[in-house]
Structures are given as structure tokens and as C-alpha cells.
Design brief:
Elements (H helix, E strand, L loop, with lengths): L2 E6 L4 H11 L4 E8 L11 E4 L7 H8 L3 E4 L16 H19 L5 E7 L26 H19 L4 E7 L2 E2 L6 H6 L4 E4 L5 E2 L2 E2 H14 L3 E5 L5 E2 H8 L3 E4 L1 H13 L7 H9 L6 H7 L7 H12 L7 H37 L1
Parallel strand pairs: 1-2, 1-4, 2-3, 4-5, 5-6, 6-11, 7-10, 8-13
Antiparallel strand pairs: 9-12
Helix pairs in contact: 1-6, 2-3, 3-4, 8-12
Length: 361
Amino acid sequence: MSKVVLVTGVTRDLGSRFARLVRGMPGVERVVGVDAVEPRHELDGVEFVLADIRNPMIAKVVASAGVDTVVHLSPAETPPTGYPGTAVSAKETNVIGTMQLLAACQKAPSIRTLVVRSTTAVYGASPRDPAIFEEDMEPRVPPTSGWAKDAVEVEGYVRGFARRRPDVAVSVLRFAPILGPTISSSMADYFGLALLPTVLGYDPRLQFLHEEDALDALRVAMAAGQPGTYNIAADGVLLLSQAARRLGRPAVPVPSPAVGLVGQGLRRVGAADLSAEQVRLLTHGRVVDASRARERLGFVPRRTTAETFEDFVRGRGLRGLAAPERVGRLSDQIASLLAAGAAQASAGQASAGQARRSADG
């Protein structure tokens, strides 16, 4: 039977490319792409529907198109450019949008396959983590904010849907940080900096996934119809220090208490978004076991973590020192942020000392 595939988040890099890829797959009759903003690029035969999945109207889209396969790619770190709403739009799209989409799928008897994008960030990052995370392991320190916390909530709602609709093959793909020549991500922004702020005393193990392998994993999961939760990551790891050397960019070790200030400063100037979640990753690292996807889905990444990073560096033209003026500006900004942090710490200690003396008096 021919498939009618619904792809959410179709205006994003991953969503638009996947929708075009699916359009050419054997047995696919129609591909319907949904998002709350107009696509920036031609979708090549994909039927685009301007719709916000946070709205219950998404149920009409699912029902009217006779959708039998849903690939949910809207969950992400940030909302797409031009997304309507406030700063909370990312969480609303991730969590509330998922709830509305699942409610629509619940009512649609035609649905047979659901593939949901998630992230290995659901495992958190802490000094008590195991060397390698498997899918059934719980985080030692659960995520408390950002994309990671959203993904934990999304997965919870998806598990509830799977229990209510056992006739639907539900697959959750936990992607390692995605890198490549074209895709946008917070990790790509970080490695694009003229200087790489690192956490003093730490050299984390990092694991990546190439953007082409991410697309292939989605394609394989959709076609396989094998329910379950799967880690999707490339083989091998890179230490952050190794990545910096391959980039040819200097690393700037920052004391742990000041990393948050540096992240705030980089965010203010639009250089990178060093969220608390990413800082924890750049402190403790994270590695997952991806053998379940290999055994049950038959998915094997074409590139290792090292090869993924190399293609990212080559494709972005990042190798070597950045322009001196960029290095100088970022160095000055980091220095001023560290000085401000030291001043705040001193003021806080002085206030605490005065409070203790007053109490003693």
C-alpha cells in the first residue's frame, strides 16, 4: 500500500532535506510537510501546509490527508527563524506541539508508523555517568532545563501514546550532536568560534553524528517499522582537546564558576549559545552505545565521529586560526566577562562577611 507521510518541522534544515528524500522513496505516494513558517527553499514535490502543531487544527491536517506515517522533526533546540510567539516558543513547540500531534494521531485510525526525533542529551552529563549509555539506562543527574528537559518530556508523552496505540510502530531516535557542512546547531556554532572556551581541568569525550547519517537513520527507521528507542551516533569518540587541535583553534580554559558568564556574553553578541546543557556536555562529555540501531534497524553510520568532524571542518572552511580581529574581539570579551565575574564574586564574599559580622555583633 502506498504511504502518505507527514513530516513536521519541514522548514528546518533536517526536515526539509528529509521530506525531499522521502518523496523519492519507493511506495511513497504523498509527502505532506507541516510548519508554522513558510519554507525558505523549494520543497520539490512536497505538499506544504502552513500549520502550527501547537494548535488542535493539526488533527484536521492528519485526517484530511489520510496520513499513515508521521515523522516528527519539530522538536529541536530552538524554534526556526521567524517562528510566531515569544521566547518560550521552542518549549511550546517541543512539548505542547508534540502533545497536540499525538492527540491527532490518537484519533486517526490510518496511522501505522510514528518516528520521533529526540537527543542523547536526555542522559544528561555529570561526573557520575557511566562510560557508555545504553537506551535503558537512566540519567544519573536528570536534565533540568532546555532542549534536554524538553526531550525527556516529549519521550514521556510518546511512550504514553505507544501504550494507547499498540497498533502503531513507534520509534524514538536519540541523535548525538549533529555536525556537517550545512546543518545549523549549537555545537556547530561553538566550533565556529575564533577561540574555544573550555572548562578548566576537563577534557570531555564527545560523540557526533553526520547530517547525512541523521537523514539515513530517519529513512531506515521509517521503512523498518521496528518500535523502540534507539541511540543514533557515529562510532568512536573525540576528546575536546583533539577537536581543537584538528580545528587549529586555540582553547581558552575558563574556571568552572565563570563558564556561565562567558556563555551569557557569547549569547548576547550572537556568537554562540552556550546553554547550561551544552556547558555540562563540554565539561563531562557523553558517549552512547548505538548497537541496538545496528541490530534491530540495520542502520550503520557511514562516517565515524572523527570523519564527521573532519567533514564538518572541511565543509565550513574552519581549519586554521581565525582572522586576528575576530580572535582579538572574542579574547577581549572573554577577559572582560571573567573580570566582571571576579568582581561579582568579591562583592558577594564581602557582603557575606559583613552579614556574618553583623550577626556576631
